[in-house]
Specification:
With 370 residues, this protein is an alpha/beta fold. 29% of the residues lie in helices and 31% in strands.
C-alpha cells in the first residue's frame, strides 16, 4: 500500500447507501456499529448524538431514517471519512471528545463502547453520554462481553438509570438505558514526571492516551538509542501521543513537530508542551496529512501503533514508514521502535535501500538513512 492508497477514501455498500471509509479508520466493519445502525426504535425527528461514531455507520443509518443526528469523533483518520458520510446523509459531524458534548440536549444517544481505549476513557464517555441526554432520554450502548460489556453496563445502570439488554449476537451485546439521574464526570487530567535524556519533564494526559501513567519501555529504549541532537535538527514525531518522544527532544534544543491522530493525545501533547515551556508544534493529523507535501525534516522518530479498534492492523504503521521516507531530507535519519514480531525491515529496506537494527531485546530499534 502506497501513502496515496492509505489516504484515499473509498466507499463500501451498506443497506443505507454507499459509506465512505479508509485505512486506519475505526468503525467499519465492526459488529458494535452494526448493532447500533440496525436500531428500529429511534423515531424520525428525534435529536440523536453518536458519541463514538468512527466513520459513522450508525449516524449515517439513522440520519437516512429521518433522525436529526450529530456525531463527535476524535480520530482524524475516522473523521475524514465521517465528514464525507455526514455530507452524504445530511447529519452534523465535528471533531471533539465525548465530554465536550452539550449537556441535556439530546433525545437519544449512541455509544459503541470504546473498550480498546481503556477503562478511564469508557467511564468518561458513559458519564458524558448520560450528561448529554435530556431527562428520560435513551442511551443505546453496544460492546463485547470479551471486552468488559457486563461491567460497563452495570456501572452505567448505577450512574445513569434503568437499563436492559436488547440483543445478543455472539459475544456482542446491545443495551438501552433511560436517563434518571446526572452522572458525575470523573477527573480527566492525570500528570506524572519522568527523567528522559537528562531532562526532568512533567506530562499531562487525558483518558484514552497510550501509556497515560508513565513513559512506556519502548519509547524509553528509542530515546536511549538516539544520538545527541542540536538546534539545527528538525524532528518529526509520527504518532506523538502525549509527547514521550517529542518533549525530551525539544528540551534538547531540536525543533520538533508532533503529529497525532487521536484528539485526546494531541490535547495531552499540547498541554504537556505548555507545562514544560517547550515550543513543540502539535498537529492533528492522519499520518502526515497535516503537513505540506514538501515539508522536510532531518530526523523522523516513531513508536507506531499497530492496533485499530482493538485489532492488530499495520496499515497506519506502514503508512508511517512511507511518510518518514517522504518527509526526510537527503541524508536524514529514520528511527522506529517496535515489538520484535512486527516485520518492518522489508518495507524500510524497499523504500530507503538500507536498514539497521540498533537494539534488539524486548523491543527493537530500527534505523535507516534517506
Amino acid at each position: 500500500m502506497t501513502l496515496e492508497d492509505y489516504h484515499r477514501l473509498r466507499t463500501v455498500p451498506t443497506p443505507y447507501g454507499p459509506l465512505f471509509t479508509k485505512p486506519g479508520a475505526r468503525g467499519f466493519p465492526d459488529p458494535r456499529y452494526q448493532l447500533l445502525a440496525e436500531l428500529p426504535e429511534i423515531p424520525s425527528g428525534a435529536r440523536v448524538l453518536d458519541l463514538n461514531p468512527g466513520v459513522g455507520l450508525a449516524a449515517f443509518a439513522h440520519a437516512r431514517k429521518g433522525a436529526s443526528v450529530e456525531a463527535i469523533e476524535g480520530s482524524r483518520a475516522a473523521f475524514r471519512a465521517l465528514a464525507e458520510n455526514a455530507r452524504a446523509a445530511g447529519f452534523k459531524a465535528r471533531v471533539g471528545l465525548p465530554w465536550e458534548a452539550k449537556e441535556e440536549a439530546f433525545d437519544a444517544l449512541l455509544l459503541a463502547l470504546p473498550a480498546e481505549r481503556g477503562t478511564r476513557y469508557v467511564q468518561a464517555a458513559l458519564a458524558a453520554a448520560g450528561r448529554a441526554l435530556k431527562p428520560g432520554g435513551l442511551l443505546w450502548i453496544a460492546g463485547s462481553k470479551k471486552k468488559g460489556f457486563d461491567r460497563y453496563f452495570k456501572e452505567a445502570k448505577r450512574e445513569i438509570g434503568y437499563g436492559r439488554v436488547e440483543r445478543r449476537e455472539g459475544p456482542y451485546r446491545l443495551a438501552v438505558l433511560q436517563k434518571e439521574k446526572d452522572p458525575e464526570l470523573p477527573p480527566l487530567w492525570r500528570d506524572f514526571e519522568a527523567e528522559l535524556r537528562g531532562h526532568r519533564l512533567r506530562f499531562k494526559t487525558l483518558p484514552g492516551v497510550f501509556s497515560e501513567d508513565g513513559v512506556d519501555p519502548a519509547s524509553r529504549l528509542l530515546l536511549e538509542t538516539l544520538p545527541p541532537l542540536s538546534p539545527e535538527d528538525r524532528v518529526l514525531d509520527l504518532g506523538a501521543g502525549y509527547g514521550a518522544l517529542s518533549l525530551p527532544l525539544a528540551a534538547e534544543g531540536a525543533a520538533v513537530t508532533g503529529l497525532e491522530d487521536e484528539l485526546a493525545g494531541l490535547r495531552s501533547l499540547a498541554e504537556s508542551a505548555r507545562e514544560n515551556h517547550l515550543p513543540v508544534r502539535a498537529l492533528h493529523s492522519d499520518v502526515d496529512e497535516a503537513l505540506t507535501g514538501d515539508e522536510k525534516f532531518t530526523i523522523v522518530v516513531t513508536n507506531p501503533p499497530f492496533h485499530v479498534g482493538g485489532s492488530v492492523v499495520l496499515d497506519v504503521a506502514k503508512a508511517f514508514v512511507h511518510a518518514a521516507h517522504r518527509h526526510l531530507d537527503k541524508g536524514g535519519r529514520f528511527y522506529l521502535v517496535a515489538n520484535p514480531f512486527l516485520k518492518y525491515e522489508p518495507l524500510i529496506e524497499s523504500l530507503f535501500g538500507n536498514v539497521e537494527t540498533l537494539r534488539a531485546d524486548r523491543f527493537k530499534v530500527l534505523a535507516a538513512t534517506r
